Automatic annotation (TrEMBL):
Name of protein: Alpha/beta hydrolase
Keyword annotations: Hydrolase
UniProt domain AB hydrolase-1: residue ranges: 9-128
GO molecular function: aminopeptidase activity
GO process terms (BP): proteolysis
Amino acid sequence: MVTDNLTSYYFTVAPALAAAGHDVVMYDQRGHGRSERPATGYRLEDFTDDLAALLDRTDTTGPVHLVGNSFGGTVAFDYALRHPDRVASLLVVESEPPTAAWAAKVSTLLADSANTLRDEQALPRIERTNGRHEARLARQACPLLHGTTIAEDIAASRIPAEERWRALDLPVLAVYGDTSDLAGTAPWLESLLPDCRTHHVAGHGHYVLVNAPRTIGALMLDWVRAGHRQRAEAIRA
């Protein structure tokens, strides 16, 4: 969220999936990358509706394997809950389903980041402390944080009831870096979802998709193959 765009996948895992014969559809979320950046309209359901419209517009038929990183995974979760018949499986990286706690955490983080980046010394300080890459990401975040209602909209998102997640009958693989703040989400997620497996990548944090693309790519390829079988078996049953 705020800094990501489709290049995260283009330069990491998408080529391997395409080379294996899979059709790959990537897009920039609203407000991100080359997509339009409206001043308002950033509730979770807006992002989910965008995904539904994209699949319709591209004539994508049949159940799809949804792959989402960080906030993209949260959008994938929400889409799967609303359109389970259009999803073969979920593969999420460093992500969690939308809950009231998630909305509160993310909206607070966005508001705090926006306030921090209003200080003209913030970007030089980030570069000195965290390096040029982190400073570039922070600079990319400024237009969305300062020019839209994204923090307020996330807080106002429609949050599904917990019992709906317990009824989500789709195969889910959730991947986390073992040093990430989200690594502890795995046991809760496995207890919440009927068909969920988790995997931790050693020595990595939240940016595991970018920093360990071969590992994530191999997991994705194996999962898509297994997901096809799982979904076919479920339909036959």
